[in-house]
Amino acid sequence: MAIYRFRKEELEGQLNRNALWAIVYGDMMSYLMILFLLMLSWTLSKQVKDPNKMKVEEAYAKVIRVFGGEIPKEMAEKAKERDLNKLFSEKLQEDVEKGEFGSNASVIVGEKRITLNLGEGVLFDSGKAELKPDAVPMLERLVSGVVSRKNQIRVEGHTDDRPIRGGSYKSNWELSMARAYTVLGQLQAAGVEPQRLSGVGYGEYRPVADNRTPEGRAQNRRIEISLLREEGE
Hints:
The chain is an alpha+beta fold. 50% of the residues lie in helices and 13% in strands. It has two domains: 64 residues; 146 residues, CATH 3.30.1330.60. It contains seven helices and five strands. Strand 3, helix 6 and strand 4 form a beta-alpha-beta unit.
């Protein structure tokens, strides 16, 4: 009986043809795994609350981008807004480090807001609620970075706990509210829509430092201007 001997090339070809099903099967399993990952990410993005929700949505968007999918419009808009917020906070921090907002300024970046903290003497003289001449260009510089945005802007006035004696204002509460109102008016005059603006005076009741020391009182006398994140407040 004759024995047919496969040549090496024929044998490899035969084996490859028989293994085609495994390639198709492997591709199908890969696509199913991707589908389930997308479904899981989407479900988590709907259920998880802030601040973890943003991280889940970002991970979900990355998975979609890797595999060439289309990101939902709402999620894409939120991602774009987060990118703009990040650029804004970085630029604001850079300006603060350059001294563009005076020597007593700082930036606080939180989950719900990006805050420019303007300390003692940056915008107002002691006991006054009228802007200092060099305060106007500072606020105009801030407005240039937010005027094209849609985020709400909140202005907070704060003082130390030393009682006011004489002058135009009867209490620290009244002074802090007057200062917040003055800043709001300047922001509006510089081009921010009034619908985006809100303000409040906290007086001495939201200290960030100990009022028993001069350094602590100086930190408590401040104006905070916050760009509220769309996902937050």
